[in-house]
Amino acid sequence: MVLCQSGEAAAVPAAGGKEPDVPLSLEEDTGTGQPCPCPAPGVEAAGAEERRACGCCSGLSWPRCCKAPGTKEASCPGLGLFYTVLSAFLFSVASLFLKKIEDVHSVEVSAFRCIFQMAFVLPGLIYYKTGFLGPKGKRIFLFFRGFLGSSAMILLYYAYQVMPLADATVITFSSPVFTSLLAWIFLKEKYSIWDLLFTLFAITGVILIARPPFLFGSDVTGIEGSYTEHLKGTIAAITSTVSAASTFVILRKVGKSVHYFLSIWYYAVIGLIGCVIALFVMNEWRLPHCGKDRVLLILIGLLGLGGQIFLTKALQIEKAGPVAIMKTMDVVFAFILQILFLNQLPPWWTVGGALCVVASSSGTAIRKWRQTLKKAKENEI
Fold it and tell me: Where is each EamA domain found (predicted)?
């Protein structure tokens, strides 16, 4: 018998369902930190043919022991999905508060959120001793994660300000479809005829929400303000969706080799720099005059930070398929909040578009999930 150190030894799956070998970090260790007795490989009891077992796994054989080297430690079932729902709720409430703010540009709101994220993440970086730059081989990924993630945030906030809450949320929810396409390009994942079909469904949903005049005529109902602003918001939401999909791919590529606090740190720092430059160029920087708006800005920053942390953790401990399916709650929360607090009943075009987008995103997620499970079973065999 030898001692095997307890710890979480597996990272989140990368492209094709493979699990990259990443160094263990102290902060990702969710075990007790105490050694557990496990039989050493290659050591057989004389005259015994019984399977070797580890007491920490209720009798499972050593190659499948949750504490054995190179295997994944069992986590709380459904914890990643709970994180996803909680993240969706926090983001939805933050978007509702954004609709309530008056005379504050979306870029300035994004800057305030970045400031709050930096303030709350900084103590975590110091506590976990992660540094401020991250591993050398991962810095380029962290930079693009920060740039694309902050760009998605700014564009999404603009879309929320000029579009109905449900419309903007539904468009951004099509990100799993774009994630599949980008994963095919950059992570060499398979892109089949089903993925193409789901993409067409998502595009159909976006068209139903955008309702271009050349298809629906000039008399478009159920929008906020002029159609020009609605169209700008639609373009911003689509661009935000593509940026968010790129962020998903980068997070899956990096996995647990980088602490999630460090990932959010890059997001906040790069986002703040970009927001400050944009505000000076547009000459839009001004503090809100109303005390209510200042409170809402603070709450948006706090809720955005919480949503970002829970979403990042969900992607690190749960497979992308279940997370993408559970993110349908984004749309549900958006419709509920818009009806209850904004007194806006979504038109049938938006409902139809939402069904198309949710169907395409859920179909993409279920298909990818099944592929991952199938490949995992083949690897076990």
Answer: 79-210, 232-361
